[in-house]
From TrEMBL:
The keyword Metal-binding applies. Keywords: Hydrolase, Metal-binding. This is Peptidase M42. One of its GO terms (molecular function) is hydrolase activity. Coiled coil: none annotated. Pfam families: Peptidase_M42 (PF05343). The keyword Hydrolase applies. InterPro entries: Peptidase_M42 (IPR008007), Peptidase_M42_aminopept (IPR051464). Transmembrane segments: none annotated. The lineage of its organism: Bacteria, Bacillati, Cyanobacteriota, Cyanophyceae, Oscillatoriophycideae.
Length: 89
């Protein structure tokens, strides 16, 4: 899952495009999302001027703070996308 926007701001479109291309090269379908009731570390850092180009690539979860439930394949897909991205840059 790649966020386009959350409750704290809009993620960098160029960086998101690069991550979408990396996902295509890895053969992994990527779900795009906007989540209004959420803020990632990246978007909060952007809000306070600590980073210029935020992105948020993640995997769907349930119960995100006490314990998390996630499909292991989704975690592996995130790693594959990041690996493909690192090969491009």
């Amino acid at each position: 899952m790649l966020l386009s926007q959350d409750g704290y701001g809009i993620y960098d479109e160029q960086l998101n495009q690069e991550l979408r291309i990396a996902a295509e090269k890895a053969g992994i379908p990527l779900q795009l999302a906007i989540i209004s009731g959420f803020g990632s570390d990246a978007s909060i850092a952007m809000k306070f001027g600590h980073i210029a180009k935020p992105a948020c690539l993640g995997f769907p979860t349930q119960n995100t703070h006490g314990y998390e439930i996630a499909h292991l394949g989704a975690i592996a897909n995130c790693l594959s996308i990041l690996e493909a991205y690192c090969q491009v840059i």
